[in-house]
């Protein structure tokens, strides 16, 4: 049977002595750090929580219970970290990070539906497709390439770099394409 001795009073210890005692039990902290996932906690935050548990266990350790300080600290640390996790998971304390408001979704969806959902009649749809087809057939090879690149979200500068052309030449092709589109729209209105 092992004879356990009382620990030195924490108030009588220097900061370096306390830090050395804490360093002896760092493998416990490392094990729990790998075992548990803490939301929005840095390495230093977890270490601070371990320090809190260490000081608490050092103050409350009773050698007469015939358990080692290491096993006692292990239990206190595990309980303390579980409390941190429970606190994080409490519904009323969950952070709003990565959360989406249903009201916001509803507003954006209705706004999207008003502006972008295709509400054309079948006749309008056929006319639109014919208009686009006519426009594409009227474009030069350069204008068509610029048109396709613009449809993928590229800017005029990116298209110029991609095609290894001066930006002015790409801008002129864009302007010609827009002019042809506007002429087609005007001719459609007159019909």
TrEMBL record:
Keywords: Transcription, Transcription regulation. The keyword Transcription applies. Pfam families: GerE, Sigma70_r2. One of its GO terms (molecular function) is DNA binding. Belongs to the sigma-70 factor family. InterPro entries: RNA_pol_sigma-70_dom, RNA_pol_sigma70_r2, RNA_pol_sigma_r2, Sig_transdc_resp-reg_C-effctor, Tscrpt_reg_LuxR_C, WH-like_DNA-bd_sf. SUPFAM superfamilies: C-terminal effector domain of the bipartite response regulators, Sigma2 domain of RNA polymerase sigma factors. One of its GO terms (biological process) is DNA-templated transcription initiation. Residues 22-88 form the RNA polymerase sigma-70 region domain. Sigma factors are initiation factors that promote the attachment of RNA polymerase to specific initiation sites and are then released. Sigma-S contributes to the protection against external stress, thus playing a role in cellular fitness and survival. It comes from Enterococcus cecorum. This is RNA polymerase sigma factor SigS. Residues 138-180 form the HTH luxR-type domain.
